[in-house]
């Protein structure tokens, strides 16, 4: 706890002001910086808060933990690496648990420090016109992350002033009840909603982003009335729309911050894979697409089960999954000293499970690979720019399709079914883009199916299963085939204690209170 929360907060000012290339996430030098001689204009303040969006602090969550927790555990992905998530044998020593916990609390530490710093600047006469929106950005990030923490671990610590905690010397911080962590998250987003602007440059937070994430949180709590109201405000704003190029949202840097995106992690294309680049590329890419520019080692592949989930004619299948016959004529990967491979790829990439692997064939365990967030074999070979592991594609955490499906589900509101015109309109907009016929009535099963295929490989389906409750989640998980094309595998050990992940073992060693029963945060 001390390492990830307290120390991260103390180091935050130094990281906030590290230089970067793109205007959106430029940070000035820290040299000589104090609240007295800095944060004197909007540009300096926005440069600091842009760190909260940057890929650098988010990396340990989004690169693999998001996949392992959100999709492998949910039955959407198969892997030979994170098998403990595949078979529900996750221990407190899991690398992905520690990575996501550390990333979340580190970013919260940055937000905590900035809130305190900007409030002090205001008290010393700083201009509220640009300090207040920045403070609101920090509250949104803090609220969103506590929402993510509550969904992942259930009960968890809440830290708002790590500096005071460090000075007190009392590092025995308890876990707080999940309902209190969710309440705190909601209150943070309500603060943000009031002070964020109506609009901003693409990629920056606005009050409608806060409304959208609040709708998602309300839905998680089964507060259908408020989920509907907040989703409706986003819809009625007219600020967002479904984009026609579904695949491009995830594979083209040119589509970063498109009109469907409410919130995304902001990435830069950079040669250093441990910097601000998106490093999902190699974990998802077909090995046949590995080149001198792009790594591709297919750590995560679509599960057999999700391939069965797509309806006939659903365009999202080819937009999300590579399988036999999938092509991209623009991609023409070539390799040194590989004449058979080069000849096979000369007219464009074709996903072929019959061709020998060394000659360009693809033989992933489920005979499929993931399209989402795979930018391609590199610019030289007809794809987006990629260097090794890194690409410049943003990672989307909330998009308009989610708002539409939240709205439809909120109107359903736990009923057996609904033919409400507004609910149908929202859900059928999502289906229409996928080339599917409209529905005349919808059930919870319909919505859960739609969410699964719409957000496949985006790290969200585990939480959709979790919020169904243990009995319903178990019934779904028990039926999932988690094997490969060669063998089937079904879960027999899913139990209620696996609905939330364990607190990282190293954190409990440092703070034994985390190993005890949770306590109320609100008195």
TrEMBL record:
Domain SusD-like N-terminal stretches: 72-219
Domain of life: Bacteria
Cellular location(s): Cell outer membrane
InterPro entries in alphabetical order: SusD-like_N (IPR033985), SusD_RagB_dom (IPR012944), TPR-like_helical_dom_sf (IPR011990)
Record's keyword terms, sorted: Cell outer membrane, Membrane, Signal
Major location (coarse): membrane
Keyword Acyltransferase on entry: no
RagB/SusD domain location: 303-516
Similarity field: Belongs to the SusD family.
Name of protein: RagB/SusD family nutrient uptake outer membrane protein
